[in-house]
Amino acid sequence: MKTKQHRDLLLGASGTIAALIGYSVIFLLPSFLEAAAVQFSLNDQQIGWLGSSETGGLAISTLLCALCINKLDMRKIAMLGIAIALLANVASNLCTEFEGLVWSRLVAGLGEGLLVTAGMTALAKTANPDRWFAIYTGAAVVLQAAGLFLLPSVIQQWQLFGVLLSFIILLILALFSIRYLPKKTVVEHEKALSSHEALNSKLSRNLVFGVFAILTFYVSIGAVWTYVASIGTAAGFSFEWVSTALSISMIGGFVGALLLALMGRMATGSIILIVSGLIMLLCLYFLNLDFDKSQYTWTLIIYSVVWSVIASRLFSLIATADKSGRFITASQPMLNIGFALGPLLAAALIVKFSYSGVLALAAVSLLVSILCIIPLARTSKSLEP
Fold first, then answer.
1. CB 304 within 8 A of CB 246
2. Which of 194, 216, 240, 326 matches a 20 to 30 Å C-alpha distance to 357?
């Protein structure tokens, strides 16, 4: 028994490390973009293009992996992903033109997506996935807070090279998790689902809307996360102070996850999603007004609280209702596509509408996401443990 628990512990820990490091570029995107903007003298539109390039690579590789997940050896996939991402980070440091940087970050995203696939697969195969996904969420908040707090000092001394070196160090650390990742990826299901367990047409349709809700939700998050640091610096705050405010706001993400866990069954249904969505919309509205440092920080903290709640509910609703495994597998590339599409659309809007256009895009995408997930929240309430 102890040996089995020990193996499960190593599996969960290795999956957490791989997924965290694979997604590190998303967690630390504001700092990376700010360093690149200074070094390459980028305009707001170019920042959006750069923000979508690496997340676009993540989206492509996770989507391809989702299509053939049952044929993949996660140890080999993780090793290949680390190798590609390492080479791409070295190439990024050698770039002297913006176009070269965009292409190298796209390649880096392809490698990171392979690492994410391996990590998430490991977490799904643990004996208690709910616990390990909660651990992953908490660890992600810690990594975000630490990175956003420390990277400004790194950037001040070593510019973009310091950020790229940080990514390289993280990728090297990921090598230690490979030996504990699963080789086989097929999830063992019961021999057959009884007729009443099979997905009926209504639930299947609502699951499709649920996956689309993840796409539009991360379009919203991707647009905001790409430009949130620029919104602060445009208000006259130093980048170092803005990074500190962003790292402090990560406390809100941890509080949101904890709040959802404490609410238990009270968080089922659609009310928690509607309330959280309205609060997020208010936060986006306040970011479009004149604000001081205190108002900026508190808006980000509250935004992070409700962002964490909605993100957790989106995945838990699909995981609970999806008996086939098809929809929860498709959710991961949808997250990455949304995170890539958000900056790309924002970059097109910011030229004519400035930050107001970015925030409007985020608001509309968020509203669509909430409307799409509500039917699944209502029909799957009875299925939740």
1. no
2. 240
Question: Under CATH, domain 1-130+152-185 is a member of which superfamily?
Answer: MFS general substrate transporter like domains (1.20.1250.20)
How many angstroms separate the CA atoms of 374 and 91, rounded? 44
CATH entry 1.20.1250.20 includes domain 199-379: yes
- Cβ atoms of 208 and 356 within 8 Å: the answer is no
Length of the chain: 385
Place of tokens 């599409």: 341
Q: Is the pTM of this model over 0.90?
A: no
Taking a C-beta distance cutoff of 8 angstroms, is the pair 142, 251 a contact? no
Evaluate the CA torsion angle 292, 260, 24, 356 in order and state its sign: negative
In CATH terms, are 1-130+152-185 and 199-379 the same topology? yes
- From 133, 191, 193, 184, select the one nearest 322 (Cα to Cα): 193
pLDDT class of 193 with cuts at 50, 70, 90: very low
Residue 98 has pLDDT above 80, yes or no: yes
Mean of the per-residue pLDDT values for the chain?
A: 85
Neighbouring residues of 184: CB distance < 8 A, sequence distance ≥ 6: 73
Mean pLDDT of 374-383: 74
Taking residues 85-94, report their average pLDDT: 96
The domain ranges of the chain are: 1-130+152-185, 199-379
